[in-house]
Amino acid sequence: MRIAAQTLPAGKKLGPFKARRFAMTFGNSNVRMHVNGKLRVVPPSANATGYVLDRKGRHTIPAGKLPTCAHA
Length: 72
What we know:
Shape: globular
Distance between the termini: 11 Å
Strand content: 25-35%
Radius of gyration: 12 Å
Strand order of the largest sheet: 1-4-5
Order of helices and strands: EEEEE
Oligomer: single chain
Number of helices: 0
């Protein structure tokens, strides 16, 4: 499944999504992330942060490898 790049305003919800692997970038850490029905903490950060969700769990993406609209 591929989802086109989207910008969500504060308070907007999107999903749920089902896929084997899902990569995302957040502009900052002001995010509430629910994975398989469980709230996952997103540590404070003033910079963009990214995650990959797969069958093994949630993994942080290094800053230089964050997905962007150009990868869509």
